[in-house]
Amino acid sequence: MVSLAPAYPFGPRKSAWSPGFWACFLACGLLLAVAVPAINLWMPPNSAAALPDYLVPLLGKYLCYALLALSLDLIWGYAGILSLGHGAFFALGGYCMGMYLMRQIGTRGVYGNPLLPDFMVFLNWQKLPWFWWGFDHFAWAAAMVILVPGLLALVFGWLAFRSRVTGVYLSIITQAMTYALLLAFFRNDMGFGGNNGMTDYKDILGWDVHQPATRLALYLASVAALGLGYLLCRYITSSKLGRVLLALRDAESRVRFLGYSVTNAKLFVFTVSAILAGIAGALYVPQVGIINPSEFSPGNSIEIAIWVSVGGRGTLSGAIVGAILVNMAKTWLTGAAPETWLFVLGALFVLTTLVFPRGVVGLFRQARWTRPRAAAPVVAGEQA
Amino acid sequence: MTAAGAAEPLLYLNGVTVSFDGFKALNELSLIVEQGELRTIIGPNGAGKTTMMDVVTGKTRPDFGEVFFQGTADLTRLDEAEIANLGIGRKFQRPTVFENLTVFENLELSLADSRATWRTLFARLTPNRCDRIGATLARIGLTEQSGQPAGALSHGQKQWLEIGMLLIHDRTLLLLDEPVAGMTDRETEETAELILDLAQDRTIVVVEHDMAFVRSLGARVTVLHEGSVLAEGSVDHVQNDPRVIEVYLGR
Fold first, then answer.
1. pTM
2. Whole-number mean pLDDT of chain B?
3. Is A206 left (phi over 0), alpha (psi -120 to 50) or beta?
4. Can you state the percent helix, strand and coil of chain A, rounding each to 5?
5. What is chain A's mean pLDDT, rounded?
6. Where are the domains of chain A?
7. So what's the pLDDT on residue A137?
8. Which of A125, A106, A143 is nearest to A194 (CA)?
């Protein structure tokens, strides 16, 4: 990609696409996309640096969470829209993928029905509901992964932003949205497997989901999705629209009086964000092997906001760092001392809010900026 | 509205009433601002000056009455962004600039470019646009500060930046709500000069408390009281009007 933003002649704003940025981006990309598979494939399993096969989907899962966190940072960090229901878009993307994977099982299910997934046979359903049509094709499922979360965000966002619902009220109705979906998906009548959800997948695009090679491919797909998602978010936030978003985060009505449509700008990023969350969910499901209604639970969505604030809100890279760090800690701690995890999570949130509101990446940047030029002229009372 | 001859008034308010919980902020206010006019509006607190601006810019919908811009655009049916895109700019009482954006970026967002979301996503900062921003920075005297966050400016500088944001977009009508509030005498004088300069090629409505400032603009004055027009005329005319004296001094 060529440099898209010309240098500012009067202001020292750096181009978002400097060589330094690309160097960092490619280094991270190589580490995730080349070094990790290389270690997994060629390190002898008994050496200290080995990466056993069972850890690959775990890393893939972290990357899906990172993409989800990125999608929340785009709207929360830049446009000030704190969605506490973003898990819903993630879960919907996941369900679309789950439906495809269920149809791939075919006659290998417990009941051996070529058309109906096991849970439908169990519930005495006679034919496939209309909304399951087409999900035996990957292309259809992939389109739905984008369309279903995107359309829900478009409709929900249009109603909310047009009525100028902002701040904590918006957060509350997004919680209500995900809770409503949780209750709906719990029902067997909905045709999505009810309480148990969907699991026992066999293959994806003809490849066995349990094979290490397939898992590595899914991991690489997650790396690619995260990388592209990051570039997209970076493009949006460094465009003029990105500055409109920052402006409306701080003074929404003033942006209206300048002639910008706040509703449209918010709707655009909210929809993009929901689609990214949906893609993250779709990549998550084949790697963890199950999707069930608990993904809609309001607590999950709140956790995403904690990842973002730990990593550093409004930085994009912080969302990725935060999601990976917090989830690594969660994996370790829920194994070592499961009962303490929720306390640690709560403490983390309090700590980031009170002590380092700009998160891990914010701390890092601050350290880098303050060292070389001790007396920065401007940023005295920056928080408005 | 009726065809009122060749020259339509730029801004036409007729019988506009706005009430908040029974309190009439505007009470059948009628006001006409002609094309190219510089108009000052004064009045005691609660006279309805800011509410009048809210109605014109679409922030508040009137309960009754008609508000037309250039004779045809019914402002009571449009939202803030649509009204702004018709060419009506507003400066608020408290300076409201985007504190986390630089001075340069504040002006960039105010450029007269397409406001469509899709267009802003792909908008590029051409040399032409940079020149316009540079010229405006020079005019409002903030060239040195262009890379600073607007939140770091002094109060007076913020007021000027806000005027610059109106300037860079060629608006037909500017509404300035107390543009010299909180300014030093020197800054007030400079602002008066700037407004007189701007008024040569656009219509400006200034709401102000500062009588010295109003006098220095030397424009036609409208006095609002309890949501309707009390008097209208030159500065000397309204200052000698006994009803105006009573309203300002009598309570």
1. 0.89
2. 89
3. left
4. 70, 0, 30
5. 90
6. 44-294
7. 96
8. A125
Question: What's the ipTM?
Answer: 0.85
Q: For residues A273 and A69, is the Cβ–Cβ distance under 8 A?
A: no
User: Which chain B residue's Cα is nearest to A233?
Assistant: B121
Cβ neighbour number for residue A126 with a 10 Å cutoff: 7
Find, in chain B, the residue whose alpha carbon is nearest to that of A376. B148
Alpha-helical (H) ranges within A187-297 are 212-238, 240-250, 252-257, 262-288
- Interchain contact, B109 vs A258, CB within 8 Å: yes
Chain centroid to CA A76: 13
CA distance A343 to A82: 23
Could A378 and B148 be called an inter-chain contact, meaning their C-beta atoms sit closer than 8 Å? yes
- What residues are paired with A198 via a beta bridge? A291
Q: How many angstroms separate the CA atoms of B18 and A267, rounded?
A: 31
**In the structure encoding, which two tokens stand for residue B192, read together?**
């008066």
Question: Residues 257..286 of A with a Cβ closer than 8 Å to B: which?
Answer: 257-262, 264-265, 267-268
Distance CA A255, CA A246 (A): 10
- With contacts defined as CB-CB under 8 Å, which chain A residues touch B143? 10
Q: Count Cβ neighbours within 10 Å for each residue of B160-173 and write b for 16 or more, e otherwise.
A: bbbbbbbbbbebbb
Q: Which residues pair with A291 in a beta bridge?
A: A198
